[in-house]
Amino acid sequence: MSDHSGRLVPLITAEQAFPAMEALVLAARQRLDLALHIFSPRTKTRSVDAHDRRLTDWGALLADALSRGVRVRFLLNDFDPVGAPDMHAAVWERIRHLENAVADLDDDLKDNLHMLVAHPGGQSGALLRTLVWPMARRQQRHAVRAFQAKGRTLPPGLAEGANAAFWPPRRNFTQTLHQKFLIADGERAILGGLDIDERRYDDPDHRRSAPETWHDVSVEIVGPAVARLAAHFQTCWTRVQTQGHSHAPAFMRAHPAQSIRFVPAAPAGAHGHDGAQQHDAGAVEVATTMSKPGWHPLRYGPRADVRDLEAAHLELFEQARHFVYLETQFFRSSATRDGLVAALGKRPDLHAIVLLPGAPDIIAYEGDDSGVHRYGEWLQMRALNRLTRLFPDRFAAFSLTNDLAREEAIERDALHNKSMVYVHSKVAVADDAAAIVSSANLNGRSMQWDVEAGIVARDADFAGTLREQLWRAHLGGEAATLEPATDPAGTFARWRHHALERSAAGARAKGTGVVPFPLHKTRRFAKRHLFIPEQMV
Predict the structure, then answer these.
(1) How many folded domains does the chain comprise?
(2) Residue range of the domain that includes 465
(3) Is there a single domain that holds both residue 239 and residue 359?
(4) What's the pLDDT tens digit per position in 486-514?
(5) Is 265 within the bounds of a domain?
(6) pLDDT per residue over 298-343, tens digit each?
(7) Same domain, 403 and 510
(8) Domain of 92: which CATH number?
(9) What is the pLDDT of residues 152-192, one digit of tens each?
(10) Strand-pair category, 452-457 with 434-438
(11) Considering the chain, what is the average pLDDT of its residues?
(12) Same domain flag for 222 and 362
């Protein structure tokens, strides 16, 4: 599992990834770069080394790095204050937690922390924002009243527009920083689908209640690819500074005594040099998604720019000869659907499996049935319908359940009387010869709008090891006997048999295992929406 002079190590679930991330931070000597979608400084540490140093959470871990003189740059996503007010508030509440964690450091050490908490530059066009502003204004006023009714401090993005003036229309933020990676000293990195938050912690057995499960995959990288990932970080840092928007000034006005150093983001529309995107041809490539602000007045969001991850998946499908294995939170992208259809149509020996959550978490555990989520499910239903209709004996979708019996409280939060394991990983493996691990789901948003990062490894040792470790977690000892690269039809049949046998056992099924994806439930819930672009979901 090497990238020439380096190495790749798969990390299955946070049980493996969190200690590796902690080790990376503890080993940093001069520089630490973090790019995350979600971060909680109160996430518990799990490694022996962190506990030996009495560093009990990630706030203490970062404070320790700063105390050693490590320069920390932190690029953190913010959430739309009106579209996701609770998540926006959580970002800034957690900034206060981080401030408390570093409070005892000398000022010169605190200055080693440079935080850029922001929205990237993508937003809807001016005319579209004007048209939807009456509805958005009502939402904003409702969110402000809800916070005030609970006695909660308004987060900065709502405090900025608490009066919800009729004019001008507020910004909206349709693009997110969805990538998740850490880099130490430009030499070592960890990348994948996992953010640093207590909700993300789980182990490969998933022995916990359904809303607490979380299956995810990261990869530790040492070698030339780290420098390429560091260049991508710098590109993102510069783009967000010059094109993005941050609520940090409003936060600092509300908390003038706070001591965290925020890097300012210029108003959207400013321009600056953002460095060059690097494209590789080695054993390990860094692949990204990047978009640019769109200026058309009726645009829903940004313009696609760098689509390396979409291209990498299409190339992986096109080059596969025997077996494609996918894990993803969403399978909605028409481009990736069509690419897989084309590959299966061209090669009669090719088989494909996709592992999905039984339903998105906001639907399964919160019962959200809004139009945008029903449309997302319609896109996934359309993709799965087409593939299962065209290739019923060579394509199948599966989900995971654990050892705990569960009756449905909300229609889609249990599968065959067992607790659903929430699949959040973003993995693609072809023929045990090449693999992709990234932050990107197989939906239009990750493929074209959001900021994403991943690796494409044309490394048979890594690809085979990654696939074997995942299948061992999902199928148990049976995984060791499967050879998808040499017996794709037999492997596919064994997966289907395992899933049907487990679903028939219902609540009596033991351990963690796969079951057929509940496409019939998706069909009941799904609803087409003519006015929402595919990239929004």
Answers:
(1) 2
(2) 284-536
(3) no
(4) 999 999 999 999 999 999 999 999 999 99
(5) no
(6) 888 888 999 999 999 999 999 999 999 999 999 999 999 999 999 9
(7) yes
(8) 3.30.870.10
(9) 999 999 997 667 677 777 778 889 999 999 999 999 999 99
(10) antiparallel
(11) 93
(12) no
Both structure tokens of 261: 């150093």
Residue with tokens 């009596």: 508
Hey, what are 214's tokens? 């979380």
Domain co-membership, 513 together with 439: yes
Q: Considering the domain boundaries, does residue 516 fall inside one?
A: yes
3-state SS assignment for residue 496: helix
Residues 248, 288, single domain; the answer is: no
Helix, coil or strand: residue 276: coil
Does 199 share its domain with 337?
Answer: no
Burial 328-365 (b: 16+ CB within 10 A, else e): bbbbbbebbbebbbebbeeeeebbbbbbbbbbbbebbb
What totals of helices (H) and strands (E) does the chain contain, helices first?
17, 18
Please say whether the beta carbons of 12 and 220 come within 8 A.
Answer: no
User: Looking at the domain assignment, is residue 263 inside a domain?
Assistant: no
pLDDT band at 411 (very low <50, low <70, confident <90, very high): low
Task: Write down the residue that tokens 């995942």 correspond to.
Answer: 470
Is 274 within the bounds of a domain?
A: no
State the residue for tokens 């953190």: 76
- Residue 369 tokens, joined: 């049935």
Same domain? For 452 and 504 the reply is yes
Confidence at 135, pLDDT banded by 50, 70, 90? confident
- Residues paired with residue 400 on neighbouring β-strands, in sequence order: 421, 514
The answer for residues whose C-beta is within 8 angstroms of residue 211's C-beta and 6 or more apart is 361, 365, 413, 422
Do 246 and 111 lie in one domain? The reply is yes
Helix (H, G, I), strand (E, B) or coil at 311: helix
Amino acid 282: pLDDT: 57
